Amino acid sequence: MNIGFHSWEFPPTIVGGLGTYAQWVTTALAARGHRIVVWTPEHPHWPAAVPPVMAGGVEVRRLSLFDATPIFEPVVSEELRSWDGFFSELLVYNLLATGETLQERGLDVIAIQDWLSAMAGLMLARPHPAPIVFHVHSTEWGRQPGGGSPAVRHLEGALAYHADAIVTVSEAMKGDLVAHGWDAGKIVVVWNGVDPERYHPDAALPVEIEAVRRCYELPSEARVLLFVGRLTPVKGVLQLVEAMPAIVAAEPRAHLIILGVGELQEAIQARVRALRLERHVSLRFEFVTESERIAHYAACELAVFPSTYEPFGIVCLEAMAMGKPVVVGARGVVGFREQVIPAGEGQTGLHVDGGNPADIAWGVLEALRDPERLRAWGANARQRVLGHFTWAHTAEKTEAVYRGVVERFRRA
């Protein structure tokens, strides 16, 4: 198949899970013999976080953006004008991507990644050059307190209505979409994946692990907990900090590393100081390279992701692929429930209420209680990834969705 792929993020400039997904799913689809044309904006000021995608069959069309703000006052709503330069970039990208997609002959399917490319999806829905698949990685009402932006919610809902199919990342997310009135018959769940050859228990050298411990001046006896992710309310990171006094009281060797960037940086710093946790919590507010992230996973004993809204969560798979046990939020719209086995044969970690510091503390302390059991959970986690959560699995199931919509489109 010839696949048109619209994504606001694409390697080497990525800032989150959307870019990671785009990087690996296009590579995996190309490995299955498909041709993927990616339309993505040029982000000259974003750092190069990962290597470019070099897979044969993936053609990247980078769109140079320009300033559209001079037209805002007469034609753009007050809400969108308040976004200023960001909406200018978003609008120009979607317009350019639409124009180029319409000129690209022979596309079998058009894959629209999340709301950031939804304007293009809506503009393409009317001429309908190929079936449109809307990939929903999260929703505005879940990401933002109070439901977020009306404009973004409109874009999501409108494209959900016009798309030929909707792919989302977990049963938890599908249930939330249906609860908000989306057509259940259009929605297919395809789990994300991880590269188990890149993320594996021996992926970091001992010298790299030691460098992580030196960076945070960790004593040899420290039992390292790791949080990786955006520092935003739905990730539960403040609740994790609030849990640390109880954790340290029962296990004084516990040391938490928080690695990420986001709007809660100052609040996290203030809470660490107020709780006098400086000796037990290390903060690194950076978007680090993939190799550094892998070294952090290797250096930890337990990964902790207490999200309250996490439709999927690739960081959990990265830790599991590295052979690390995990404590994860499992209350709310959280795909971690589908990744992590919390009891019985094959247990990989524990489920907690990510909004409750006491429950987070219970989960961490219960996990740390038996080091031998903890290592067994980590080994189970690696096996679960290999059986269910590789990008090859994701590509196979995504291909099946695309073939289905193409067949229906051609019969119509």
Please summarize what this structure is:
By secondary structure, the protein is an alpha/beta fold. It has 2 domains: 213 residues, Rossmann fold; 183 residues, 3-Layer(aba) Sandwich (Rossmann fold). It has 17 helices and 15 strands.
Q: What's the SSE blueprint?
A:
Layout: E1 2-6, H1 17-31, E2 35-41, E3 58-63, H2 72-75, H3 78-82, H4 85-103, E4 109-113, H5 118-125, E5 132-136, H6 140-143, H7 150-162, E6 165-168, H8 171-179, E7 187-189, H9 206-215, E8 223-228, H10 237-250, E9 254-259, H11 265-274, E10 281-284, H12 290-299, E11 302-305, E12 309-310, H13 314-321, E13 326-329, E14 333-334, H14 336-339, E15 349-352, H15 357-368, H16 371-388, H17 391-411
Helix pairs in contact: 1-17, 4-5, 5-7, 9-12, 10-11, 10-15
- Overall pLDDT level: 95
Largest sheet data: 7 strands, parallel
CATH class of the largest domain equals Alpha Beta
Looking at the structure, what is the overall shape? globular
**Spatial strand order of the main sheet:** 3-2-1-4-5-6-7
Using the CA coordinates, give the radius of gyration: 22 Å
Task: Give a count of the beta strands, DSSP E runs of length 2 or more.
Answer: 15
Give the second-level CATH assignment, the architecture of the largest domain: 3-Layer(aba) Sandwich
Number of helices: 17
Q: Which stretches are low in confidence, meaning pLDDT under 50 for 5 or more residues running?
A: none
**Backbone structural class:** alpha/beta
**CATH topology-level fold name of the largest domain:** Rossmann fold
CATH superfamily of the largest domain: Glycogen Phosphorylase B
Percent range for helical residues?
Answer: 40-55%
What fraction of residues sit in β-strands? 15-25%
